[in-house]
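Quick one, tokens below:
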């Protein structure tokens, strides 16, 4: 069995030419799909150096214990997660977002003046099995709605992550298909958000979701991740999302 390391897999940067040729919008890279803290904080991270709609980007999602979501991204909203999730975020901030690797399974994610987030990653029997399946799955199956629905229903309980969906609709109205090919667990983490410690990792009292995208109740990291958006939102809805993002950024 091939042994994958998070650092080397995440740094194996894909190229724009590697994206499938179809009318959908595509992104590729690595991600912390989500990490809940028992305090009610929630963090997620996207590192997508390849995008079919503009420059690659990095972003951090933060949910406060009160349930308010802020997006920090190093590109304008029309090129970042705000393009699809903007209606669910209370604020969108354009700023630097960085990740540095101190070892094959250790990383630090920073947003200057906002976030210092240490991660330790590891494997389990479940992540090894799902990775072995995913790296062999042909591209056509990654676009099959029945296959993706079955994978989400199967993977969530197997990983102890609660409900998971690998396809559906995002808050701005587009449809999404998630294509994670290599998986690890977040085995330990510490984070300081706006000077406040987030506490110990642990599931939220009630699992949160943004439209059909359910936030895992256990820390998960993925590399060689593709995200496909087969449809686009109605122009009025998309425009409302961009207007909200601009307003929040100015606040």
């Amino acid at each position: 069995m091939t042994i994958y390391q998070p650092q080397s897999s995440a740094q194996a940067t894909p190229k724009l030419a590697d994206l499938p040729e179809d009318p959908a919008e595509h992104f590729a890279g690595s991600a912390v799909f989500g990490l809940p803290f028992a305090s009610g904080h929630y963090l997620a991270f996207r590192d997508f150096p390849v995008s079919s709609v503009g420059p690659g980007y990095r972003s951090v999602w933060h949910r406060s214990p009160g349930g308010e979501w802020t997006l920090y991204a190093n590109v304008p909203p029309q090129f970042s997660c705000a393009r699809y999730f903007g209606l669910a975020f209370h604020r969108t901030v354009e700023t630097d977002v960085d990740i540095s690797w101190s070892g094959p399974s250790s990383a630090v994610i920073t947003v200057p003046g906002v976030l210092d987030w240490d991660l330790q990653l590891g494997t389990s029997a479940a992540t090894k099995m799902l990775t072995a399946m995913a790296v062999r799955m042909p591209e056509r199956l990654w676009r099959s709605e029945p296959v993706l629905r079955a994978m989400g229903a199967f993977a969530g309980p197997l990983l102890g992550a609660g409900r998971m969906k690998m396809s559906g609709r995002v808050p701005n109205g587009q449809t999404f298909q998630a294509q994670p090919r290599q998986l690890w667990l977040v085995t330990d983490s510490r984070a300081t958000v706006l000077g406040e410690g987030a506490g110990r990792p642990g599931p939220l009292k009630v699992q949160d979701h943004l439209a059909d995208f359910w936030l895992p109740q256990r820390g998960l990291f993925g590399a060689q991740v593709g995200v496909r958006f087969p449809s686009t939102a109605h122009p009025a809805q998309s425009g409302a999302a961009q207007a909200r993002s601009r307003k929040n950024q100015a606040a």
